[in-house]
Amino acid sequence: MRPERPEDEAFLRALFKSHTEQPLKQAGLGDTQTETMVAFQFRSQTANNRARFPDAVFSIIECEGRPIGRLIEQDEGETVYFVDFALVPERQAKGLGTAYIEMIADEWAAKGRAARVEVRYGNEHSLKLCRRLGFILLDDRGTGFVNLIRPVDPALRGGA
After folding, report:
1. What confidence score (pLDDT) does residue 160 get?
2. Which residues of 50-61 are buried (b: 16+ CB within 10 A; e: fewer)?
3. Whole domain around residue 2: which residue ranges?
4. pLDDT single digits (tens) 66-79
């Protein structure tokens, strides 16, 4: 893992597209509309993350010198908020994401900090991943996302 750099923008745009393009196409948008919407959403999310989390650590996950994902971590004091985590599609569903997030969350737990995430209600893949890693419900404010936390103490964690 290394710090994100300006020259990573093309990779980050492609990574974002790999996670957002299919639902737009399923909604009936044509190729041009999809490209326009993905570009707009990428710019919007990037600006929003930079504005809301100016002190966050924006990292690129690499394997053999090639970028395969990204992680944004915001240190909140008693917790660390994983703002965004994504892997390229060809690296998903192979246990890498689970192992990686577990490693990072364990590093923060060793510092006495719990890990926190927000997951969209319908994102079953991410919800399942979080359950496997011991994240439990912190709160649900009815905003379309659940706020989950992975306690420092393993005895307090949930599990699959």
Report:
1. 55
2. eeebeebebbbb
3. 1-67
4. 999 999 999 999 99
